[in-house]
Amino acid sequence: MKEKFNIIKSTGIPLPNENVDTDQIIPARFLKATTREGFGENLFRDWRYDDNNQPVVDFVLNNPTYNGRILVAGKNFGCGSSREHAAWALYDYGFRVVVSSFFADIFKNNALNNRLLPVVVSDEFLQTILKGISTNPNTPIIVDFENQTIAFKGKEETFEINPYKKSCMINGYDDIDYLLSLTEDIKQFELQQS
Amino acid sequence: MSRTLFDKIWDSHIVKKKEGYPDPLFIDRHFIHEVTSPQAFDGLKKRGIGVFNTERTTATADHNVPTKDQHLPIKEALSRHQVEALRKNCKDFGVTLYDLGHPFQGIVHIIGPELGLTLPGMTIVCGDSHTSTHGAFGSIAFGIGTSEVEQVLATQCILQYKPKRMKIEINGPLSKGVLAKDIILYIISKISSSGATGYFVEYAGDTIENLSMEARMTICNMSIEMGARGGLIAPDEVTFDYIKGKKFAPQGAELHKKIEQWKTLKSDEDATFDKVLVFDATDIGPMITYGTNPGMGIKITDRIPTPEELKDISEQPSFIKSLNYMGLEPGSQLMGKHIDYVFIGSCTNARIEDLRLVASIVKGKKKAEGVEVWVVPGSKQVEEQARKEGLDKIFEAAGFELRSPGCSACLGMNEDKIPPGKYCISTSNRNFEGRQGPKSRTFLASPLSAAAAAITGRVTDVRELITN
C-alpha cells in the first residue's frame, strides 16, 4: 500500500541554489540500475561526497542540524534531463515534498507520478522559508495536501495542484489505470487514423 | 478559429476529451533506449500486459555503450546488464532493436530521422529530454519520464496537459562562421535556461527557413535547455527533400500524397501565440558557454559578465558558485583559454554535416599538442558516410580519434568521461557540473568552434581560421 498523502508536518532542508538540474540530483553514472529502488544512496552524489567518497561537511544533507522530509530549493528545480531517477532518488532518500518557486516541467510530472509533491510558492515566501529554517532549523513546515496550503511560522500560502493528479494521489491510482480504461477508444482512434 | 501548427497536431491526436482530465494523446512514434526503459517494461510485467502496438516503438542502445570495441562484450558489469536487459525486453515484448553492431544503431535522436521514422505531423516521445530534436520535421516531440514510457508501451497514449505556445522568430542572414548551434546558444543566453518553461516553441523566420534539416535538428534539440517541452518547425521543401528515399519513409505515390498533406502543416497566419520573441540573426556571432547551465553563454569574443552585471541580483550566489566550479574569473575573456579535450558528438551535433564542417577546418592541419580530440559519430550510418567521404582520413591525419556511435562524453555515464578539473570544448548540449564526468568543466560550442580549438589548443574565434 502506498503511503497516504494528507498533512505533512516536518522540518525542512534548505538548498537555496537555483537551477538545480537532474544531473546534480542523480548523476548519469548512477543510472545503471534496472529497478526503481536504491537511488537515494546517490542523491546529490557529487555535492554530498568528495573524490575520496568522504562526506562533504558543508553540504546540507551532511549537516546534522538539518533533517526532515521536505526539501526547500531555489527556483527552476529539476531542470535538464528527463530522468525519472531524480524523483526516485529524492523519494528513496526520504523526501515527500519539494518546495520551490519554480519547477522544470518534466521533473514536475515525474515527481507527481511518484508521489513526491512539488509545492510552488511565491519567491517571497520561498526566501522567508529558506531564511527561517537557516536561523531555526527546528521550525516545522506544514503542508496540507487536501486543502492545498503550506504554512511556516504563522504565514500561509495556497498552492496549485492539478485536480486530476490530486485525486490520483488520494486514491492511489495512476495514469495507466485511466488510459487502460480507454483501450477500446484508442484502438478505434488508431484504426481511423490509418 | 485560427490555430498554431502545434494546436493542429495536438488536437488531431486527442483520443477522447474528458472534462477535468488531461488529454489522452495518441503517440505515433515511440523511441526507447537502455537507460529509461527497464523499469517501464517491469511495470508491464507486473500488470501482465504487453506492448499496445510494437510497430510504433523502436529501440536502440546508445547512452550506456562504449565507443570503442563495440564488437566485444561491454566491460562494465552494470552497463552490460542494462544493455542485456534492453535486449531481453525487446525480444520478450517483440520490439525492434537496433543493437550494437547493427547498421542502423546510433543515438536515438539521430537514427529516427535518418531512417525515415520521424515524419511531419507526428506525435513522438522518448524517455530522453532531447526528443525535442524530432520537432525539426514539424512534429510534436518531447521527452518523458519512465512512468510515461510505461504508459506509451501499454496504451500508445500519454496523458498530458497542453502547454502554452511560444513563437521564436529569427530573421536575417547568418555571418561567416555562425552555425545553428550558435543560434540556439544565443537564444538561450538571452532568455535563460528556464525562459521557455511551460511552453512549446515554434521556430520561424527566414533564418530558420534557410537552414538545412540537420541544422534545424540542432536548434530543436536544445529547446529543452531553455525549459521548453519541445520545439518545432513547419515542414517545407527542405523537409520533404530530406525525407525522400529514407528507409522507412513513405515512397513513390504514397510519398507524394503525404507531401500534399504535410504542406498544410503550418500555423494559420492570424494564429495567436502566448508569447512571441523576435531575434535578429545578424547580431549572432560564434557562441560559447562559460558557466554550468546552457543559459550562461556569450559571444566567443565577449568577456564573462561580473556578478554585478546580472539582471537579477538574487542569482549572484549561484553565479559565483558556477564560476568557481569552472575555475574562471568574472569579467575575464575566454578567448585564448587553454583546453584539454575536444568532444565532437551527441544528439546535438554528430550528424554528417557536423563532421563535414569539422573536416573543413582541420583538413591538412594537426591538433594542438596535449589536446585529446574525440569525434563520435551519431550513428553507424553517419560513421559509414564519413568513411565513404574520406573524412576519417582527415581526422586521422589531424590526430583526432574517430570512435563508434553512442552518446559518449555528452553525459558521463559510459566509459567516455572528461577527467576532473579538465576543460573540454564540447558540441553537446549541457554544461552542468559533472555532466561530462565528475568535476569536468565544459564549454559548449559549435562544431566549427570545437574544431578550431582542437587545432590551436585554445578557445579560438573560428573566423580567424576560415580563409575564404
Provide the descriptors you would attach to this structure in a database record.
heterodimer; A: 194 residues; alpha/beta; 7-stranded mixed sheet; 8 helices; 7 strands; 33% helix; 18% strand; globular; B: 468 residues; Aconitase, domain 3; Aconitase, Domain 2; 3 domains; 5-stranded parallel sheet; 18 strands; 16% strand
Q: What's the average pLDDT of chain B? A: 97
Class by SSE composition of chain A: alpha/beta
Low-confidence stretches of chain A: none
Structural class of chain B: alpha/beta
Q: Low-confidence spans of chain B: pLDDT under 50, at least 5 residues?
A: none
CATH architecture of the largest domain in chain B: 2-Layer Sandwich
Give the number of DSSP strands of chain A: 7
Question: What is shown here, in short?
Answer:
With 194 residues, chain A is an alpha/beta fold. In chain A, 33% of the residues lie in helices and 18% in strands.
What can you see in these coordinates?
- With 194 residues, chain A is an alpha/beta fold.
- Helices cover 33% and strands 18% of the residues of chain A.
- Chain A has eight helices and seven strands; from the N terminus they run E-H-H-E-H-E-H-E-H-E-E-E-H-H-H.
- Chain A has helices at residues 22-25, 45-48, 85-93, 105-112, 123-135, 163-171, 175-180, 183-193; strands at residues 7-15, 70-73, 97-100, 117-120, 140-144, 149-152, 155-158.
- A seven-stranded mixed beta sheet of chain A has the order 4-3-2-1-5-6-7.
- Chain A is globular.
- The N and C termini of chain A lie far apart (41 Å).
- The model of chain A has no long low-confidence stretch (mean pLDDT 95).
- Chain B is globular and about 55 Å long.
- The model of chain B has no long low-confidence stretch (mean pLDDT 97).
- Chain B has a five-stranded parallel beta sheet. A five-stranded parallel beta sheet of chain B has the order 16-15-14-17-18, with helices on one face. In chain B, strands 10-9-8-11 form a four-stranded parallel beta sheet.
- By secondary structure, chain B is α/β, with parallel strands linked by helices.
- Chain B contains 15 helices and 18 strands.
- In chain B, strand 12 and strand 13 (297-299) form a beta hairpin.
- In chain B, helix 2 (38-47) crosses helix 5 (146-155), helix 12 (352-362) packs across helix 14 (391-398) and helix 12 runs parallel beside helix 15.
- Chain B has three domains: 5-160, Aconitase, domain 3, CATH 3.30.499; 164-234 and 257-283, Aconitase, Domain 2; 287-464, Aconitase, domain 3, CATH 3.30.499.
- The chains are: A alpha/beta (194), B alpha/beta (468).
- At the A-B interface, helix 4, helix 7 and helix 8 of A face helix 2, helix 3, helix 5, strand 7 and helix 11 of B.
